[in-house]
Amino acid sequence: MRLFIALNFNEEIKTRLSELREQLRAQSATGNFTHDENFHLTLAFLGETPKEKLDLLINIMEEVRSPPFDIILNRTGCFNRGYKELWWIGADPASSGLQLLRTIHGHLVSRLETEGFPVDKRPLSAHITLGREIIHPRPIVLDTPELTVRADNISLMKSEHIRGKLTYTEIGNFRLQN
Q1: Strands, DSSP E only, in the chain?
Q2: How far apart are CA 46 and CA 16, in angstroms?
Q3: C-alpha span between 140 and 26 (Å, rounded)
Q4: Do 54 and 170 touch, CB atoms closer than 8 A?
Q5: pLDDT tens-digit profile of 32-77?
């Protein structure tokens, strides 16, 4: 199973993210745009993982100690991948919620590494992907909203292609608490 740990969003936030994605789509010649149900913020990517490791992963997630908190999303940008771009909305660098998110990410990465999972040790890039492989004829200008996202649980997610569509399914979650 291809797995990752993420923050998921409520329907209101997904609707606001879809509005921003549609601004991006309208200014793009082509691209792969994130489906509403797939909006998330990745905390740790695990990749192919045997089913036998699921209980261990849930235990690692249950070790996270943090009260629920808010994250402010208020900036957009892109990662360049050759002549194609990955566009995102990201967390306010000055947000206290981003610091808590980085602490959770650090704990997860440390524990996953201790248990032998291959982990990406780069600092957390707190962003939500709006579209990949974006090609556009003119510079893109997005009317970026300021969104307050409540982080109150973390989810273990499975990524798979179902009938040609990338689908993310929650297979476990843990509520944040002290």
Answers
A1: 2-8, 30-33, 40-48, 69-81, 84-91, 127-135, 147-151, 153-162, 165-175
A2: 28
A3: 10
A4: no
A5: 999 999 999 999 999 999 999 999 999 999 999 999 999 999 999 9
